[in-house]
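Page 42, continued from yesterday. The earlier attempt failed because a stray header line got pasted into the input along with the sequence. Redoing it now with the clean sequence only.
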Amino acid sequence: MVSILDRQRVPLVMMALFVLLFGCLSAGTHGSINAYQYPVTKYRLAEVVDSIIDHSPSIRRDSMRNYMIDMTNGKNDTIENRYYNDDTTYQTIYVKTAKGYDSYIFRFGGGREEGDTSGSSNISVAYAYDEQGHGGSEGNGAFSWYNGRLKRRVLDVFESELVSKVDRALGVKGEVVR
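This time it went through. Structure tokens are written below.
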């Protein structure tokens, strides 16, 4: 016979397993601050974005190295790790503003296998920081309901310096998706 205490533990154990399972599955997610959907393949969108970045005096692409080497007294030492800057999934750019540089980490939606077959793709902003380093990702709570001005400010810069130029190059306005 099951005691009353055991019957009370079952829901608690089930709840703990549920939280553990779904907590682990979503660990490390950053969410998307904003995404801009276009009716072109991922490869075409990446080609246009890369061209705009390469030819824009106000946008600087971050190095694609995953680390920098500091040489001191003949010894090499890794001093920086750029996990979200692999040039395969994520790209980091800096956009000049009147006060300095805002930084953005973005990716193109979809997997490699969809790169030239899907009829649509998107630019998804994973992280955004203003010139003072304020910001982050949607997933880490940096852009909560009470911090809407910061989100709008960094997105305005991203949209005016990159998204609007992509719109012009493709001849279509990107649809904002979340």
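Notes: Residues 104 and 117 are 27 Å apart (CA to CA).
Reminder to self: strip header lines before submitting.
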